[in-house]
Amino acid sequence: MKLGFISSILDTSSFEDVIDTAAKLGYECVEVACWPKEKAARRYAGITHIDIEALTESKIASIRQYCHTKNVTISALAYYPNTLTADLDQRRKAVDHLKAMIAAAQKLNVSTITTFIGRIQTRTVEENLEVFQEVWTPIIRLAEKYKVRIAIENCPMLFGPDQWPGGQNLMTTPAIWRRAFDLIPSDYFGLNYDPSHFVWQQMDYIRPLYEFREKIFHVHYKDIKVYPEKLRDVGTMAYPLDYMSPKLPGLGDVDWGKYVSALTDIGYNGYSCIEIEDKAFEDSQERVLDALRLSYRYIRQFVI
C-alpha cells in the first residue's frame, strides 16, 4: 500500500506546495482536491488544488512532471458533492464537473476519482435509489469509456441540522451498497472505504472488507471518537456531532491494527490516504503540519 493524505487540509497551499509537503514528510501519494472554484458550502470543501476547468495540455504535462520529480503519486482526484440534490441546477453543475474530472483523470494518468453519490435528504432510501440509477448510470458509463474508477466514500454526510434528517450521501452501509451495485453493475464503480463512519453508526467496520474486497478502490485513515456519556444523554437519533468527533488516526476508537490486517488479508495493495478533520489541529498551519506528521508516524507502524 502507498501512504498519502487528502489535500483538502492544506486549503491555502498551491498544488506544488501540497506535493512538496508530501515529499518532505515522507508520503508517497496525495488524494488531490479538485472542487470547482466557488464558495464552499461546508468545511473541507471548495478546495481546488487542480483546477479541472483550467487544465491545458501544458498544465497537465507540468502536473505530471512535478509529481514525477518529487516521487509523489496522485492517488485520486477528489470531489465530494451532492450529485442527487433536489436542487436541479446544483445537481447539474455537480454532475458536469464530475464528468469533466473523469475525462481529465485519464490525461493526468490518474486511475481513480473519489466522491459521494449524494442524496435527497428528505426522501427515503428507495426513492433515492431510483434517482441514483437515473443520474449515475451515464456517469459510470463515461467512467467505463475512459477506464477511470469511481470510488464512493461511505460517509453519511449527516452531522448537524443542515443535513437532517437523512444526510447527503446514500452509500453508507453494506445493505445499500449491494442494492446500488446491483442497479449499476460495473468494474469501474466501487468504494473509498473509511472505517470511521461505521464507528459512530455502531457498525462492524472489518467484516464488510471481506465481502466487498473487489469493490475497494481506495481507502481512508480517519478516526472517530464516540463520547459514551454524550451518547447516553442524546441517543443515536441525535445530530451525530452531539456525541462524536473526528480525530487523528490513533486518537479515536478505530482499531487500526485490525483494519490494516484485514486489508492485507484481502490483498489490498492500492492507495491509502489519511483524512484530517481533527479540530484540535487546525489552529495554525504549523498545527496542520503537526497533524500530518503525527498521523504519518502512527500509520507507518502498519503500512510499510
Can you walk me through this structure?
Residues 20-291 form the Xylose isomerase-like TIM barrel domain. This is Sugar phosphate isomerase/epimerase. GO terms for molecular function: isomerase activity. It comes from Schaedlerella arabinosiphila. The chain has 304 residues and is α/β, with parallel strands linked by helices. The protein has one domain (2-299): Divalent-metal-dependent TIM barrel enzymes (TIM Barrel), CATH 3.20.20. 39% of the residues lie in helices and 16% in strands. The protein is built from 10 helices and 10 strands. The strands form 2 sheets. Strands 1-2-3-4-5-6-7-10 form an 8-stranded parallel β-barrel, surrounded by 4 helices. The mean pLDDT is 97.
CATH fold node name: TIM Barrel
Helix/strand structural class: alpha/beta
The tally of beta strands, per DSSP, is 10
| Architecture per CATH nomenclature, i.e. the level-2 architecture | Alpha-Beta Barrel
What is the makeup of the main sheet? 8 strands, parallel, barrel
InterPro entries: IolE/XylAMocC-like, Xyl_isomerase-like_sf, Xyl_isomerase-like_TIM-brl
Keywords: Isomerase
Domain Xylose isomerase-like TIM barrel: 20-291
Protein name: Sugar phosphate isomerase/epimerase
Any chance you could write out the topology, listing elements then pairs?
Blueprint: E1 2-6, H1 15-25, E2 29-33, H2 57-70, E3 73-78, H3 88-107, E4 112-115, H4 125-146, E5 149-153, H5 174-183, E6 189-193, H6 196-200, H7 207-211, E7 216-221, E8 223-226, H8 228-234, E9 244-247, H9 256-265, E10 271-274, H10 285-299
Parallel strand pairs: 1-2, 1-10, 2-3, 3-4, 4-5, 5-6, 6-7, 7-10
Antiparallel strand pairs: 8-9
Protein name: Sugar phosphate isomerase/epimerase
Domain Xylose isomerase-like TIM barrel: 20-291
Pfam families: AP_endonuc_2 (PF01261)
